[in-house]
Specification:
- The structure is a single chain.
- The protein is mainly alpha-helical and 93 residues long.
- Helix content is 84%, strand content 0%.
- The protein has one domain (3-92).
Length: 93
C-alpha cells in the first residue's frame, strides 16, 4: 500500500476539521474529531485487510504525531495570546 496516499487522506480530513473550527465558534479541540475519524478509518482498512500491520502501525504513529503536534501548537498559541493580551493591558495602565 502507498503510505503517501493515506497521509494525504489524513491531511485532508484534518484540514477540513481545522478550517471548520476556524470558521465556527465550536470548541477549540475540534481537531479531535478528525483524528478519531481517521483512526476509525484506519482500523476499518486494517480489519478488511486493505493495509498490512506494518503500514497500519506507521499510519497510526504518523496520525498520533500530527495530533500531538497540533495540540501542543494550540496550547503554545493560547499561552502566547494570553501573554500578549496581558502585556497590552499592562501598557495601557
Amino acid at each position: 500500500m502507498n503510505i503517501q496516499k493515506y497521509k494525504k487522506s489524513y491531511n485532508n480530513i484534518f484540514s477540513y476539521y481545522h478550517k471548520k473550527r476556524l470558521k465556527s465558534s465550536l470548541p477549540r479541540h475540534n481537531h479531535i474529531k478528525g483524528f478519531q475519524y481517521f483512526v476509525k478509518h484506519l482500523i476499518k482498512l486494517h480489519q478488511n485487510k486493505d493495509i498490512d500491520n506494518k503500514t497500519f502501525q506507521r499510519l497510526i504513529k504518523q496520525a498520533a504525531a500530527s495530533f500531538v503536534e497540533t495540540e501542543i501548537s494550540n496550547r503554545i498559541n493560547t499561552v502566547l495570546n494570553n501573554k500578549i493580551s496581558l502585556d497590552q493591558l499592562l501598557k495601557r495602565l
